Amino acid sequence: MVRILGLDYGSKTVGAAVSDPLGITAQMAETIVREREDKLRRTLARIEALIEEYKIERIVLGYPKNMNNTLGERAAKTEEFKAALERRTGLPVILWDERLTTVAAERVLMEQGVRREHRKETVDQIAAALILQGYLDSLSARNENEG
Fold first, then answer.
1. Distance CA 128, CA 28 (A)
2. Cα 111 vs. chain centroid, distance in angstroms?
3. Which of the chain's ends, N or C, has fewer CB atoms near its CB within 10 Å?
4. What domain range includes position 51?
């Protein structure tokens, strides 16, 4: 089965999640802290290490659309990051609508009683897991419709 890496790309951090070997569930992996927004080398190197460690064959990258379905500055930066990932890793990168995933991730942490100052440590990983889980669920639904 194909293992998939889910990424929530931000200016300061990149949340990472990985699928289980069967491609059913997404698990939080880590938050990659970025030194500067205009520097990608270390971020890409860490992602490559995750790809190696988990034997990743595909990447799902959160795509930040505006609520009215338009694309803004973050979407353009995400498209540049997608191109850099594809060049560096040689893997297919799928853009996945991430609207409300960070909001949902914050809600999960609030419901679990995690204090505000500790939320930022895991919110990006949870957002990445939600992005990846949405993609995995869409694959599962598509397979059910075809089968």
1. 7
2. 22
3. C
4. 3-141
